[in-house]
Amino acid sequence: MEELTNGVKIITEEVCSPLTCTSLIIQTGSRFENSCNNGISNFIEHVAMSKIDLHESFYNKGIKIDSLTTREFQRYSAICQTEYACDCLEAFSNIITDPEWNDSDIELQKNIIKSEAIDYDNNPKSLVFDYLHQTAFQETPLAQSVIGPSTNLLNFNKFHMCKFLKETYQPHRIVIVSCGGESHSSIMSKASSTIGYLPVSECKTINDGFQRYTGSQITYRDDSMPYAHIAVAVEVPGVNSTDYLTLLVANCLLESWDRTQGGTNRHASPLARAASTSRLCELFETFYIPYRDVGLWGVYFIGDPKYLDEMVSNIQDQWMHMCTTIVHSDVERAINIAKLKLARRIDGLVNSCYDTGLQVLYTSKRKSLSDLYNELSKVSEKTIKGVCFKYLYDKCPVVAAIGPTETLPHYNRIRSGMYWLRL
Predict the structure, then answer these.
(1) Is 45 a catalytic site residue?
(2) Annotated active-site residue in 13, 33, 45, 235
(3) Is the same domain home to 102 and 8?
């Protein structure tokens, strides 16, 4: 890993492959926006990609381009033959160093994002997690959605885009990653001649994306829906915490389950056994959404309207068991699942490139898989109990729900399920 004179970080992984995955990752997103420009990072991504996609030469060279904007980062990626890797890097660099915004492209992308927003609103799972952030981080930038409100979208123009680019797309917030057959020296040379000339702005008004957690509940009742979509979570540390891997293991203890699976009462997870032998839910998924300094850790499930209270009770019961009576065999099983998840993150050029970029963006370094495995080997039932007691036991949860939620317990009752009265 090297750093250009202006602060851009460059990391490469050279392997014997005819392909190369090149990514440009910027620390931007809805967390670094305000109420007036919420959604502009996503809008810039759409307009920028529309310009790159118009390059006929990219299609002729067989280059596959991808982009993503989240609450905390924006990523532009290209998978191509090694000889074209530097061309992709130059195209991505031009997004920041030499933006060419066309009024017709801007209006076209507004209409496209409107259609995407409609599709997004029709996805109950996406809405639940948006509501979860809104109630967990209310009145802070982390509560804002990536797409942003339609009123902001209609007002965006070249001035707003250039202003946000100048303030937020700073060199020290940019990471360039290459994984594949391209050499480190070639990537360094191309980066130095393109994005290396990006000046360091003295603007001091960058939104640092502060956060504040609030235990609360948000419910959108719609009895016309066949099932309720619910997420229950607690506040936990983010990627930079020493408890990150322990929380990942704890997340694997409950696993995930859906109605299409067999096994009935032979599942390893008690929650999966309870769900498969009854009508508690149609599926449940554990999640851990880590940001740089905070995270949300919990369970998302789709449940029958008549059994929501029982499902929530079962989830909290398992959480309390994790705090008090977890056993060694369960921890070993969860560690093996966590190892598999970590291995999948670097499986192939694309996944390895994405994982490397995020590690460098968050921590300015990269841990190898063997280092992560060594840290996981130190996790024990005592460690799990300590971390779960620290972040779960008697803590205020956040709840987001959509659908027929009549039997969903009141927040005070859910809060009282976060501890056991013991002698």
Answers:
(1) yes
(2) 45
(3) yes
- Measured distance CA(68)–CA(74) in Å, rounded: 6
230 token code pair: 């619910």
pLDDT, residue 402, reads 98
- Looking at the domain assignment, is residue 41 inside a domain? yes
Q: Which residues in the chain show pLDDT less than 50?
A: 204-205, 423
Last residue of a domain, one of 197, 226, 261: 197
Verify that 75 and 166 share a domain, yes or no: yes
Q: How confident is the model at residue 132, as a pLDDT?
A: 98
User: What pLDDT shows up at residue 423?
Assistant: 46
Domain that holds residue 127: 2-197
Asked if residues 75 and 41 have their Cβ atoms less than 8 Å apart, the reply is no
Confidence (pLDDT) at 204: 47
**Counted domains in the chain:** 2
Q: What is the dihedral of CA 359, 365, 366, 371, to 10 degrees?
A: -120
Same domain, residue pair 228 and 189:
no
Residue 93 — left, alpha, or beta (φ > 0 → left; ψ -120 to 50 → alpha)? Answer: alpha
